[in-house]
Amino acid sequence: MVEKDEAFYLEAETPGMTDKDISVEFNDGVLILKGHRVQAPTTEETDYNIQEFTRQSFERSFRISNKVNSQTVS
Fold first, then answer.
1. Average pLDDT, the chain
2. Would you say 31 and 64 are in contact if contact means Cβ atoms under 8 Å apart?
3. Do 37 and 53 contact (CB within 8 A), yes or no?
4. Cα separation, 11 vs 35, whole angstroms
5. How far, in Å, CA of 61 to CA of 7, rounded?
6. Could you give the maximum distance between any two Cα atoms of the chain, in Å?
7. Which 8-state DSSP code applies to residue 20?
8. pLDDT value at position 8?
9. Rg from Cα positions in the chain
């Protein structure tokens, strides 16, 4: 996170996740970044006994300022 005169900037790497997997919230001076993804494996076989799923999630929060206009958070 970087604070500049005109704005705060947050850059996060989220490997394997798309925009729809990520959410950003801002409440009472706290910016919350969340990600969640569930992926079923792709396989050519249809006759199997075990099938595994990949599940990824994270949540990070940053206290920045109550002076930030929540309508401008994107």
1. 81
2. yes
3. no
4. 14
5. 17
6. 60
7. G
8. 81
9. 18
SS3 72: helix
pLDDT at res. 16: 82
Q: What is the pTM of this model?
A: 0.68
CA distance 68 to 30: 10
Quick check: 18 and 39 in contact, CB under 8 A? no
Would you give the DSSP letter of residue 28?
T
Residues of the chain scoring pLDDT < 70: 40-53, 66, 74
Token duo for residue 12: 């996060």
- How far, in Å, CA of 36 to CA of 9, rounded? 22
Judged by DSSP in three states, 70 sits in helix
